[in-house]
Specification:
The protein contains 9 helices and 5 strands, in the order αααβββαβαβαααα. It is an alpha/beta fold. It has a domain at 59-151: 2-Layer Sandwich (Nucleotidyltransferase, domain 5), CATH 3.30.420.10. The chain has a 5-stranded mixed beta sheet with strand order 3-2-1-4-5, sandwiched between helices.
Amino acid sequence: MMYVRFPLSLRNVEDLLHERGIDVSHETIRFRWNRFGPLFAAEIRRKRVSRMRCYSNWHWHLDKVFVKIKGERHYLWRAVDHEEEGLESYVTKCRDKVAAPKFMKKAMKRYGKPAAVVTDKLRSYGAAMKVIGNVKKQEAGRWKNNRAENSHLPFRRRERAMQRFRQLRNLQKFVSIHASVFNHFNQDRSLSQRDHFKPNRTAALVEWRGLCAA
């Protein structure tokens, strides 16, 4: 949890655990994360999908960020909903009309079709909408997609802490897990009163411990 939730390196987590009397190496933490991270993320995602599929006014915001892997530019496509919770992440080497439909089909296969899709003015989105047959639901504008732009900040903090990524496969795996764990603990601290925030944070931690115990 500490490694995925907070912008820490494996060795940072090793030192924090050492202060608590737990003597493990950073390679042990890496192994545990690779083994159990996808399982926890899948369970969190499953619960959210079952809760949101019946939501009739579900808006998606799509955007991409540039990510360098060994000096080569890649594109991380991300979909967030109207609550700024990450839905899907997909890494590609291109941002053309082939990559965009693949990303959107992957997201819709898992979450169903949204009521509206907000994008920037990249032409690949328009081409993807035509392929999917969802053109009427697209909304594009200069300021409409700020929700997706702001949602990239947690990922960028992680990227700096990890000194970037070295393999496309590892990037794809990490962003999927990171989004699910971030969603689970994200309680909109700036928008919630303290009396509401504290019980919600406690409930999220209790549920996480239940996942770990299972």
